[in-house]
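Deliverable D5.2: sample structural annotation.
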Amino acid sequence: MLKVSEVYEKQIREFKEKPDGTEYVNFSNRFDSRDMLINKEYIVSVQPHEFTSSADVSKLEGCFPDDTKFSLFIMDGNSFRKSEIVVVGSFDKFCRLLQES
């Protein structure tokens, strides 16, 4: 098993105030991470990942340090929620971890 930090979208509730003093709730999405274990036998490929769209970049602001590296895991099997998982960590780091086993 391999322990990784998966990047996922989290909905954030923000309270804002109108000019007349009334408050309202605004919802926005941000990226966050959560720990998970992955069976190494189900990993098909790993590749470096960059968030390039302006929407994704705005969701990243303030969530991770600017120099954070991300990788994309392609998973095999029908038992996963999705076949592509973005994780925190550099491509080189995962190359070393997966080659050791």
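Annotation notes: The first strand starts at residue 2 and ends at 17. Residues 2-100 form one domain.
The annotation will be released with the project's public dataset once the embargo ends.
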